[in-house]
Amino acid sequence: MTEAQPTLQAALSQELKHELKLTRRLLERVPTEQFSWQPHPKSMKLGTLASHMANLVGYLEMSMAGPETDLAITKMPDSPTSTDEVLRRFDVNGENIHKALEQLDDTMLHSVWSLRRGEQVFMTMPRAAVARTLVLNHLIHHRGQLSVYLRLLDIPVPAIYGGSADEAPQR
């Protein structure tokens, strides 16, 4: 008897759940009083980075609303101004993305979505690529940045993949 292959939706859902848990542990450590701190004038401010991470989790859900999203007419949420607001936004977007993924089948994940602002098209890709590239990989990229920011601020960095200098690996 051959074991059934997991669907793309199931695999993405499982991976997303794991990555969101790791990311939340990092966001919890962002101090509100340091939101305006930035390691370099060309770098994002700490609060801007944390807010961006909380918001980008919503891009998969946004991609499922139709064949394209036009940022010229889509109202983006205001940036959170505290760690509690960042965590609330991240949690809501995380719950919404899981609910949205439950509604998708692999056919929908292979269908194409575009992100634009008016006539300018930024990207066109299958929704599975939105989940992997625009959400997961993008989130992991910024999680790396955020862990460096926390290190520079002498805030203990949580274990992510394996231990950190401040924490043993999670079991």
TrEMBL record:
It comes from the Bacteria. Pfam families: DinB. Keywords: Metal-binding. InterPro entries: DinB, DinB/YfiT-like. SUPFAM superfamilies: DinB/YfiT-like putative metalloenzymes. Belongs to the DinB family. This is DinB family protein. It comes from Hymenobacter volaticus. The lineage of its organism: Bacteria, Pseudomonadati, Bacteroidota, Cytophagia, Cytophagales.
